[in-house]
Amino acid sequence: MKKIKIIIPALLLLSSALLLFTQCEHNYSCTMKVVCRLFDGVDTGKVAANAYVVVGKEEYADYAQAEGVTDSQGIFIHVFDYPALLDVNVTYYDTIHNLNGTVDSILYTGSAQIQLYESETTEKLVLLMETL
Asked: Max CA-CA distance within the chain?
């Protein structure tokens, strides 16, 4: 009986110490999904493949910035370490073949803000309009 009185408090003390001195790693990562489509007064649904996407600004911390191009579906995905409210700017060049044989380049741009939440995937549609 005397051994049990010593063992039980010792086990309680050890388990309490274990809980106090071990850290639980928390995953704050947030996935951002930007979908880019062309817009000419109505959402055409035309995909903006290979559009250039810039997330954040120069004055933002490095972990709150990203850049790259959209895939063939007009989608850009990036994982950030922390939740944030970020600016998104997109540039896309399209070409038109004229009847006289010339080729014109059209610049489309779009921007938005996206709020990223801890351990979630946030999707934002950016409609790109022709820039004159």
From this structure: 102
